[in-house]
Amino acid sequence: YAGQMRWRICPTLKNNYRISIQCRSMGSNVTLECDGGSIDSKVRWQFNGRNVAHSERVIVQGTNLILRNVDSSHTGTYKVVLDSLFTKVSSLSLCLDAPMEPNVMCRSSAYPISFYCTWHLPNPTFIPTEFNVSVRHGEKEIEFIRDDKHKNRCNVKFVELFSASKYTVTVVARNSLGSNSTSISFKEETIVKPDPPEIINVNPVPESPQRMVVVWQNPPSWPEPDAIPLKYFLRYKPIILDDWQHVEVTDVTFHTITDAYAGKEHIIQVAAKDNEAGTWSEWSKAVRATPWTQMPVDPETETKETTSSITSGILQPTQNSISSPTTGSAHPFLLPLPGSQSISFKILFLIFKLPIKYTVTTLYSVSCELL
């Protein structure tokens, strides 16, 4: 196709500039025209904001600019200034030749119901390219559905489970300069890869500074978690460290971490995999959590509470705690005074230790009652 021009011109008007987008094939000769002036008009061409320098491959002919044997170095924006009054902007996009072989990937995140395939070109062609897709199971061609939300994706239902036959997907990329194709073959179990689970919450365990309970749920796209269960891989680490702790979990969607770093914020993620087939999912969205931490005690508050508690525990004098010498007293600190039958003293001695100031204080409580 060398020397043959293939293009698409879309004139528009933007900021009073006439703009056209053109596509050309590699190696062709391209002429950019100035529509607004006569052959005698004075023009000045610019390429990517700089004045065009004449060369063997770049020639100004009248009011037109001729590019010979174009390659990727010619791609950019060309502007022509006519008599300092009229400006035309022309954007030249070069085709790189026929499309390269497309990259094709197939995956089942809804096993055993269906799988999907996606494709894309390694490099853009700058011209319209269409893709033709075919899917076979063994020797039989099967139907598929093109995805409405993703233009380069199709959805395929599994024909039968545990089949020995392979699936073959072929994607052909074609534009005006040629075509190329890619085919991949696989067994169903090799493309099974669940979507990541979702962590619901992470709860600290009261009075346990190294324990946290992580709860997650199956990916919504996994259709039959009871019939075809998943196993899980949990990883976690304190934010301040680089190394992860790992644990594999089966049959349940929760796990109690028992070796968390006390008082440190952790990052937690979980992945899923079919018990028998396929590969692990990507990691779930990271969740941050901190184990239970004892709240610090205000020293002043602690002193007041301790003093109040001790004071309330001191025995107070009562009528029953005072006896006459005639009836006697069972209490060792009830002593009668010589020569007196009417007065007795109760002396209580209490020695205790305050936890904050670490001082020993002796309290005396003396009560007397006239009998």
Question: What are the salient characteristics of this protein?
Answer:
4-stranded antiparallel β-sheet, Ig-like_dom_sf, 6-stranded mixed β-sheet, IL11/IL27_subunit_beta, Immunoglobulin-like, 371 residues, Ig-like_fold
**What share of residues is helical?**
under 10%
How many separate structural domains? 3
- The CATH architecture designation of the largest domain is Sandwich
- Overall geometry comes to flat
Q: Element order, helices and strands?
A: EEEEEEEEEEEEEEEEEEEEEEEEHEEE
**Largest sheet strand order:** 1-2-9-8-4-5
Rg over CA atoms, rounded to whole Å, is 44 Å
Annotation, overall tally of beta strands: 27
Q: Please, how many helices? A: 1
Indicate the low-confidence ranges by residue numbers: 1-17, 314-371
Helix/strand-derived class? Answer: mainly beta
Overall pLDDT: 78
Largest sheet: 6 strands, mixed
First-last Cα distance: 131 Å
Structural commentary:
It comes from Callorhinchus milii. Residues 11-90 form the Ig-like domain. Residues 313-325 have a biased composition (Polar residues). Residues 1-17 and 314-371 have low confidence and may be disordered. The protein has 3 domains: 6-95, Immunoglobulins (Immunoglobulin-like); 103-190, Immunoglobulin-like; 198-289, Immunoglobulins (Immunoglobulin-like, Sandwich). The N and C termini lie far apart (131 Å). The longest helix is centred in the last third of the chain and has 14 residues, at 299-312. It has 371 residues and is mainly β. The chain has one helix spanning 299-312; strands at residues 12-14, 17-25, 30-32, 43-47, 50-51, 58-61, 64-67, 76-82, 86-95, 103-110, 114-120, 130-137, 140-142, 145-146, 153-157, 167-175, 178-186, 198-205, 208-217, 230-238, 245-250, 254-257, 266-274, 287-289, 334-336, 343-353, 360-370. It contains 1 helix and 27 strands. Strand 16 and strand 17 (178-186) form a beta hairpin. A 6-stranded mixed sheet has the order 1-2-9-8-4-5, with no helix packed on it. Strands 10-11-15-14 form a 4-stranded antiparallel sheet, with no helix packed on it. Strands 13-12-16-17 form a 4-stranded antiparallel sheet, with no helix packed on it.
